[in-house]
Amino acid sequence: MTRACFILSLTLAATTWAATEEQCNQMLEQALQDKNPDTRKQAVVSLSLAATRTPAFGRLEGMLADKDVEVRLAIVAGLAELKTPSARAALHKALEDDVPEVSFAAAKALWLLKDPAGEEALLAVLQQESKSSSGYLTKQKRNAQRMLHTPNTLFLFAARTGLGFAPVPGLGQGVASMEALLSDPSISGRATAALLLGTDKSAATLAALRDALSDKNWTVRAAAVHSLAARNDPALEKDIEPLLDDKKEGVRLRAAAGCLRLLSVPAPKKKKR
User: Fold this and answer.
1) Confidence at residue 143, expressed as pLDDT on a 0 to 100 scale
2) Within the chain, how many helices (H) and strands (E) appear?
3) What does the alpha-carbon distance between residue 241 and residue 167 come to, in Å, rounded to a whole number?
4) Residue 48: predicted pLDDT
5) Is residue 144 a part of any domain in this protein?
6) I need a surface site. Which of 124, 160, 203, 264 has the fewest CB within 10 A?
7) Is 134 exposed, middle or buried (CB count within 10 Å of its CB: 0-12, 13-18, 19+)?
8) Do 225 and 192 form a contact (C-beta atoms < 8 A)?
9) pLDDT of residue 213
10) Count of C-beta atoms within a 10 Å radius of residue 29
């Protein structure tokens, strides 16, 4: 390849990269502002796959006033992944949310971040639990005890504590995206398997995940996008990119966040001979 051709190929690649990045950012920004709360929630949970410097991430803190509880819960999960001073400040604000589900989620998020406010809030919950009245928090405690016996919750706990996931600066573990999929009543066993195999680096698993991108079941496609993006291999961005046009919103938005994630990962340096 001549020097001129080489420079031209680099220019074309940079142009394509910029176009894809702009498309992905626009998709996520529009979804965050959509009137449909389900769309906003899908955008928030999908962002957990993107690089934390993605522009849309900066909108999460201001969305804690969203009218929809499910959206606010997803935002709390996303803020926990940011691990920045401003995100922590937003989680402190979420502790004051009028809806117990949101304030309790913020307390758990802060506790996982080893923030003293999280422990204080959970202690307050414990003290309130000791009363004889059976209110919302008692119901939450019973639900939590039941969930501890399910494989999905154990998997999420492992993900939240970093088991099996190599931390990469500026990139979250995509826990909110996983949690949304695993809690979806329509999720198939194959989709769960695709998520569980996300950390397996074998060639056979990679081939299976690539095949799953064209599966008829949308939860399988979404899970495959998630697991491929979580591998942090820039070469896989081209596999995910076609799903930006997927008919299912949950797949499209994860693909957008996944592409942004992989475009932000530096290509591995070639070893000198």
Assistant:
1) 45
2) 14, 0
3) 24
4) 81
5) yes
6) 203
7) exposed
8) no
9) 96
10) 15
Q: Tell me whether residue 41 is in a domain.
A: yes
Cα gap 39→204, rounded to integer Å: 34
How many folded domains does the chain comprise?
A: 1
Nearest CA among 79, 51, 44 for reference residue 169? 51
So what's the pLDDT on residue 152?
Answer: 53
pLDDT at residue number 82: 77
User: What's the pTM?
Assistant: 0.68
Residues of the chain with pLDDT under 50: 6, 8, 10, 12, 129-151, 154, 157-158, 161-164
Residue 9 lies in a domain: no
Separation between Cα atoms, residue 160 and residue 150, nearest integer Å = 16
- Which pLDDT does position 214 carry in this prediction? 95
Q: For residue 51, list its beta bridge partners.
A: 171
pLDDT of residue 27: 93
Burial class from Cβ neighbours inside 10 Å (0-12, 13-18, 19+) for residue 271 reads exposed
Tokens of residue 147, six digits: 């969930």
Closest CA relative to residue 109, chosen from 163, 72, 164:
72
What is the extent of the structural domain holding 205? 22-264
248 conformational bin, left if phi > 0, alpha if psi -120 to 50, beta if neither: beta
